[in-house]
Amino acid sequence: MRFMILIKANARFEAGIEPASDRAAAFAAYCREMKEAGILIETASLLPSAEGLRLTYSEAEGSPAMTAGPFGDAAGQVAGYMLLEADSEREAYAWAARMPDPYGFGEGGIELRRLRETAEPPFAAGLSPIEADLRDQIGALRNLHEKTRSKELPT
Amino acid sequence: MSGRAAHRAIDAVWRIESAKLIARLATMVRDVGLAEDLAQDALLIALERWPETGIPDNPGAWLMTTAKRRAIDLLRRNKLRDRKYEEYGRASPLFTEDDVETETGEIGDELLRLIFATCHPSLSREARVALTLRLLGGLTTDEIAHAYLVPEPTVAQRIVRAKKTLSASGVKLDVPEGKELEERLSSVLEVVYLMYNEGYSATAGGSWIRPTLCQEALRLGRMLAEVAPREPEVHGLVALMEIQSSRFKTRVGPSGEPILLMDQNRALWDRLLIRRGLAALERARSLGRPLGPYALQAAIAACHAQALTPGDTDWARIAALYEALSRAAPSPVVELNRAVAIAMAFGPAIGLQIVDQLADEPALKGYYLLPSVRGDLLAKLGRMEEARAAFERAASMTQNLREQDLMRRRAAECAARDAGDKDGSPRETV
């Protein structure tokens, strides 16, 4: 199952202050370890919301209104994400819990969210032999159909 | 030889040799992940040298020798692996470096050990498939991702995790016996059949994949039948793969378009493979236990294989086999298959009844082949307006443009016939 860690922003991040080099190094080491364990699919950090655009839908089916950032409410913004693949929520949590304090000041937080997977099991896509049989059988049904018709045509 | 030609040739050698290479190395170093690394190292050395020296006469043996040398170096040098080295030394006390030059012995056992490791129950189903396709099928992570519609990094990470899990849980490279064999066999059969289907449906593109993967799957299946001759499903799976393979040449037209079973030139079906398939099915039956899903699907395939013309098909038997299959492995798509077989055997009205019972099935919600089948059955019953509506509905439910087009044309045909009826022109009974 896949999970996403959302790294929440704080005022410092929103002000565009880069994390101290020891923070960055700790985070890089954490990512490397996750990658080696086969947990981490990808990760990225975002720019502050001042660089972002917000689209709001105020009426059903209507076109959205655009607002430029910053959006305020620093703690409600997202500073980055990590996409993980784990066998269980417990395992994903164990990894999330090891993330170094993102800002090093005891500020901010992260959220662990599970991805909604498609109902179709990923390994059944395009590979069902039973479905191939069904297509063949539909073909048989149609052929029979054509045959009955052609029989009626005077030759 | 130009660099590009050399790379293509090396690529081809890798496809053919990698599984054997990894299987033999895994037996040697007792670690699937390490075995793959060593095989990859040998491939890198080949990529560096072969464009200059040309491809050796026996490229597989060259790769094996190179990889084994690396393995020996590694085992000697790496103090951390002392324990494994000792184990290895105990396992084959007569091994010397001279041995690496000669390529003898049956590779079969090593491939079997590898597949029982890559299909180990400690791995998730997705991981088993990915690892087996990678190590035994020689597919790249990108090809696996493409085939299963998941992002490439997801597959890559799945494989990394799977190898870690195997190393960490100390999975032994062996072929299980007795009760354990019985338990672990089903996950191996499942992966072998996925591998076969991956080749058969060729979702991964390149034309080389199809025959190679199918042949490998068939070969593994035949080997499994020898280790587990008392298991009906092993013979069932082999029978299914043999019979499906017999139609390999006839199922695609000259411009790559699929040819449905009923339109195939039956004279071109491979009779040898059919005979082997029927013999395997007979072995499954002779064990005297109820047939499982693979054997039942093989029995259905056998009905088609034994019909000399489409008109000779024993649809009543096929319908009965689908009923048995839906008890052994319940699935709404199997039910839909049964409905069509019943319509073929006993007429469209009964088929339509079954299809309409399936309409509320949650798993078939949004499944466009349900209204498509319904449309065909209604058309056969002369209910053209309802048939048209069913095909329109089917068209609106598929994203596939070719299928959409086909459904719309079927709808238009029905509309035209319906209008014809209302004009008072002679009615066609269909």
TrEMBL record, chain A:
InterPro entries: Dimeric_a/b-barrel, YCII. SUPFAM superfamilies: Dimeric alpha+beta barrel (SSF54909). This is YciI family protein. Belongs to the YciI family. Gene3D superfamilies: Dimeric alpha+beta barrel. It comes from Cohnella ginsengisoli. Residues 1-101 form the YCII-related domain.
TrEMBL record, chain B:
Residues 115-166 form the RNA polymerase sigma factor 70 region 4 type domain. SUPFAM superfamilies: Sigma2 domain of RNA polymerase sigma factors (SSF88946), Sigma3 and sigma4 domains of RNA polymerase sigma factors (SSF88659). Pfam families: DUF6596, Sigma70_r2, Sigma70_r4_2. GO terms for molecular function: DNA binding; sigma factor activity. It comes from the Bacteria. Residues 22-79 form the RNA polymerase sigma-70 region domain. Gene3D superfamilies: 1.10.1740.10, Winged helix-like DNA-binding domain superfamily/Winged helix DNA-binding domain (1.10.10.10). Residues 184-284 form the DUF6596 domain. One of its GO terms (biological process) is DNA-templated transcription initiation. This is RNA polymerase sigma factor.
